[in-house]
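[job 4417] fold queue: 2 targets
>>> target A
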Amino acid sequence: MRVNSINSNVNFQAVNQKYLQRAQKEYKQIGCITNHLQFCLVSDVVLFKNMPIQDGIDTLKAIKNLVKNSDACIDKDIELLTKLLRK
């Protein structure tokens, strides 16, 4: 998976473009981000280790920033990955 650095005034460093583009597409088409997208992202970080934990956190923060009215699920996933990062 390709992870790109982004320049922004928010405090995340690297965002997985695959998931960010999927989130943008979903948000544009249906007006929200599906739980399936979040599940796949967290699974890639936790189960399959295809992405560093910090990159997963940064990607979720970027998705949350994209979606103005995000639900608590994104916050819970960010909290989960942050706890894993601290271990």
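>>> target B
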Amino acid sequence: MKRVIKVLYYFTLSVSMLVGLWHFFVPDMFDWYSYLPMQYESLIVGIDYTNYCFSALLFGSSLVLILLGKSALSLNFETVVFYTFLTAVWVFRACLSTFIEPWPLEPVPAAAIGQLVGALVLAVLMTAVTISLWRERSKTKA
């Protein structure tokens, strides 16, 4: 079981990091600006800042947790809390797209469905790792 958790830990963080990296290029890939009137330059800048900061935080947090993998898998409290926070971010993202405001199917249905499935799978896997880390920690610290 420990080996499975270790593999899932690094897998989920690698996917999370790649999503963060990919997000830097999303505005150009999907031509976000074609949907906005160009007279709203401050709105475009705000969207860019939000996207770039989110991308940097997601990429950076995931990378730091990969570098701290040995610490997390040895059940260091602070590192497990940090991983739990990133798990909460992905669970929030999955809940947001599932229950609150689903991604519109137009203009690219595959992107909407892919984001939903990807976020749900990552949230479930990260939740499983988080629960396992906390259970293991409570056994060893009791």
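[job 4417] complete. Note on B: The chain is about 80% helix and 0% strand.
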